[in-house]
Amino acid sequence: MVIVRQPGAIRFLFISLALSWFSAVPHALIVTGSGEYVFDDWGFGRKGFSLSAGDISLSTGILECKAIRTLSEMHEKVNGVMPFDDETVEAELCYRFRRPVFSANPDFAFGMWTSSGKDRSFLSGSLPMTVRLFNQRLSLMASAGFRSGPADDNPFTVRIGLNKRTLDYDLGIGFKGWEVHAAISDNEYASVNRSDYRPFLVDTNFFSVFYEVLNPVFNFINAETDPIPSNRIRQISGYFFGPILPVLYVGGLYTSRDSRHDLYLPVADTGSGGLVYAFFPYITPIKEKVFSAILTFVKTWQGTDAFLNELGSKVSFPVYSSGSYRGYYLDPSGNLLAGFQDFYYTYEGLGTMTFDGTIGKIISRGFSVTVKYAWVSRPYIAYCFFCNDSYQYHTIRLEVKKHW
């Protein structure tokens, strides 16, 4: 995956893709063009456009090429953070090695941004493997991956260049359509200098006075603030899924996460005595545990005469979730100079709920159209997934495929 900004590099990117397509001798080819729009209720929007070529058959496997352009923009001031935007162009090359007993899917990526005046680049790779035994009735699966570069937690961490190193491991076993997996993810976040964070804050004067003058003297908040400290988040998870009907699948996912630091920092004075808080640029869970039930429906029909050729949906519902967060409150006198007091509070029912839906139709002459929708909700009040006290975002995606 290559992420660039210069027009010349973009032209070279697409020429390279074309050479990759024609240098292969495809027995089959699927060309896909797609557009995607992501939005939330806080003023964030992201547009993405992609072109890919897949099912390019080589002597030892299958090749897939993809080019993506993404435009992200935060339109409003949120939690003390200024509006921002970002733009990327990506190219990805994926190779799938397949044999009756063994298959592997090595993927290597490199990327860079040059739009913000600060060097931002990443390096990543993954290697999932599958061994099939007993006439392919039993599958043993293993996967390892790494990524090093700007944190991909959200567009803001990418924009400020908050570096993160991630190592992922997954082991699984499959039998008669059912799979059981165990996974570990280790994420190391680098510290963030205030010179990188400060341009995105609404009220830099308050930030400067509070952290450079008052806090070092009065110790309002007993936390590292210069710079925002390095952090580490570890995640251990186990999940399973399989069919209970030809079109219905069920599963479960248990996740345990913990971070070294859990902070949020006051950055601005509202003018009426209140404070605006900018949360940590990424979620910092403390002893978070979530078990989610998963239900998936998939139905397909063949031929252009069918009203639809694909209909699917997936719901992930957090049956149980718990954890803790650090909070702050002013001294009962209400005097800022009296300082802040911090505390930890536990919570339940704040796990994330997701929904995905897919509709597909074969048109004619190898053309097909697919519409996908995804919805994510993380509540602030237990199980309040659909109310205003939750963070929700939506993804709408349109894909047009041509089979050659």
Q: Any descriptors?
A:
404 residues, mainly beta, 4 helices, 21 strands, 59% strand, disordered N terminus
Question: Explain this structure to me?
Answer:
- There is one protein chain.
- The protein has 404 residues and is mostly beta strands.
- It has helices at 7-23, 155-159, 194-197, 204-218, and strands at 2-3, 30-40, 44-57, 61-74, 84-98, 102-104, 107-113, 120-133, 138-150, 163-175, 178-189, 231-245, 248-259, 264-269, 275-279, 286-300, 310-330, 340-348, 353-362, 367-379, 390-403.
- The strands form two sheets. Strands 2-3-4-5-6-8-9-10-11-12-13-16-17-19-20-21 form a 16-stranded antiparallel barrel. A two-stranded antiparallel sheet has the order 14-15.
- A hairpin with a 4-residue loop joins strand 8 (120-133) and strand 9 (138-150).
- The protein is globular.
